[in-house]
Design a protein that fits this description.
7 helices; 14 strands; four-stranded antiparallel sheet; eight-stranded mixed sheet; about 20% strand
């Protein structure tokens, strides 16, 4: 780390705790005017340091692409359990495929997560996936259901649209950390993005407080791009220990910082605890895309993020080893 690296401004969080999640307009995300980009990056920095979550509008993903992916997910989750179980995520070494109800447990204090999921990673439309040589411990292709026309295409269409948005966000995160806009280019050459189609059944009747849609956790990668439907379930934990509703806002996506950025920035960027609790009495669907760096990248602190007042907090590991270890803990004994 360079000794003369500039200290990241506003490293200390504000004294007040957040009560709502900011909305950032991305209409200028491709604007090349340095002043415009700096202003947008300042908004991003404030949200990343003080909240760890923000909404984005004018986010570039077409509504038709979202609609088709959600419809594909609904068709998949309506399949018989025996059919979905042939793609069980425990059968793959790279955590791709189907997760049944209570099939994972993100909060060790809970009894399980009340959702179904389908996980996929990078794949070209031609069918070319990733090899172990490319992704190390997380290498391997996707698994797809048979007899469900259009499911793979709709899922990948959304996946690539969300990855493209993520690629446009990385330069803003770099600017927010007082790094060159191109800082992440050589660290995201093979975007290690994992997408999930999620279905939350209604949680009705007698409620076990230790069964939630997804238990309290932080995400594992750099940041998450989340589409959520109109059913309120997502909650974010503020510094006062109070759960703040991430109310669905039409036309927006939710972005939140994950552990890779927290480790990389030595906790300058905040990986905020959150959960999903669907006690609405109706079904809920969401699509998170977890965007990480290449799996072989070492998560060493960014220049300017380690100081006398903020000494290094984390052991340096590769992104792939970190993500795999967290996934193994999540699916352990399920």
């Amino acid at each position: 780390m360079a000794e003369d690296a500039p200290i990241v401004p506003a490293m200390k969080r504000t004294d007040s705790t957040f009560e709502e999640i900011p909305i950032i307009d991305l209409q200028n995300i491709q604007n090349t005017d340095p002043a415009v980009r700096r202003a947008l990056a300042d908004e991003v920095r404030d949200a990343c340091i003080n909240v760890g979550f923000f909404y984005v509008k004018n986010h570039t993903i077409p509504q038709s692409t979202i609609h088709d992916a959600v419809s594909a997910g609904k068709r998949f989750f309506s399949l018989p359990l025996d059919t979905k179980a042939t793609l069980d995520i425990h059968k793959t070494g790279n955590f791709k495929g189907y997760t049944a109800l209570l099939g994972e447990n993100t909060n060790p204090e809970n009894r399980g997560d009340l959702h179904e999921g389908f996980d996929l990673g990078w794949e070209e439309f031609s069918g070319e996936g990733r090899t172990a040589e490319e992704d190390g411990v997380m290498g391997g292709g996707n698994v797809w259901p048979k007899g469900l026309p259009g499911f793979r295409e709709a899922s990948l269409e959304y996946y690539h649209a969300a990855v493209n948005l993520g690629k446009m966000l990385f330069p803003l995160f770099a600017l927010a950390l007082n790094l060159p806009e191109t800082f992440f280019d050589d660290k995201t050459t093979k975007p290690a993005a994992i997408m999930r189609l999620l279905y939350y059944p209604p949680q009705t009747g007698a409620v076990d407080a230790r069964v939630e849609g997804i238990g309290a956790h932080t995400d594992y990668e750099c940041f998450t791009i989340l589409w959520q439907d109109k059913v309120q379930a997502l909650q974010v934990l503020n510094a006062a220990g109070r759960w703040i509703d991430a109310v669905p806002i039409p036309g927006t996506l939710v972005i939140n910082i994950g552990d890779q950025f927290a480790r990389w920035s030595n906790d300058v960027f905040k990986s905020t605890v959150h959960r999903a609790v669907n006690r609405s009495g109706v079904e809920r669907y969401s699509i998170p895309l977890f965007f990480g760096s290449d799996y072989n990248v070492r998560l060493e602190p960014f220049p300017g993020c380690v100081t006398e007042d903020n000494p290094a907090k984390y052991e340096v590991v590769t992104a792939g080893d970190y993500v795999k270890s967290r996934l193994e803990a999540t699916y352990k004994n399920h």
